[in-house]
Amino acid sequence: MRSGIGFRFVLVLAVIAGTLAMGRAPSEQTETVRVETKQGNAHTFAVEVADDPRSRARGLMFRDELARDNGMLFLFPRQKRLSFWMKDTPLPLDIIFIDKVGMIVHIAADTTPYSLNPISSQFPAIGALEVNAGISKDLGIEVGDVVRHRFFKNVQTDNSPS
Question: Considering the entire predicted model, what is its pTM?
Fold first, then answer.
């Protein structure tokens, strides 16, 4: 019985080491984020949550791929103008900035990989959703649309379920 536990421990370490070697921190779990457009469409993303300084600093750096319906949701303790960069990020991304009620306030579309140029939320935001470049356009996601997640105190909109 003891050797089975040792084997499992070594296996877990190997998985973690392999994940880190691919430039990724092991993600304990993903959560879902639902984006509802003014046109009445909705799309759900499976996201990793970056809600502490270390995970926000790392973000999607060193990732070579991101599934179409996946992303990373950055959450901050207070609403303010946010600034991101693409240092060590090989993937072009759309960065969707979100205010405290879940409203999209700005979309930085098709960001440039590896760029050190600041990418501003332009308006106060408390969160940002990073997805593959072009997804916002493909799905018709625009400023004023609503992001549903447990973190945001979502307001009711005309297209929200009653």
Answer: 0.79
Residue 154: which of 114, 112, 99 has the closest Cα?
A: 99
Return the DSSP state at 47.
Answer: E
Residue 9 phi/psi, 5° resolution?
-60, -45
Domain that holds residue 64: 28-148
Instruction: Please give the share of the chain, as a percent, with pLDDT higher than 90.
Output: 76
What pLDDT is attached to residue 26?
41
pLDDT category at 23 given cuts 50, 70, 90 is very low
Q: Across the strands, what pairs with 95?
A: 108, 130
pLDDT in tens, 126-140: 999 999 999 999 999
Instruction: Give the CATH number of the domain where residue 90 resides.
Output: 2.60.120.1140
Is 86 contained in some domain?
yes
Torsion (CA) 64, 146, 141, 108 in degrees, nearest 10: -60
Q: Which region, left, alpha or beta, applies to residue 69 given φ > 0 means left and ψ of -120 to 50 means alpha?
A: alpha
CA of 32: how far to CAs of 47, 86, 127, in Å? 6, 24, 14
Q: Which residues pair with 71 in a beta bridge?
A: 47
Q: Does residue 92 contact residue 130 with C-beta atoms inside 8 Å?
A: no
3-class SS of residue 39: coil
Q: Does 160 reside within a domain?
A: no
Residue type, 59: G
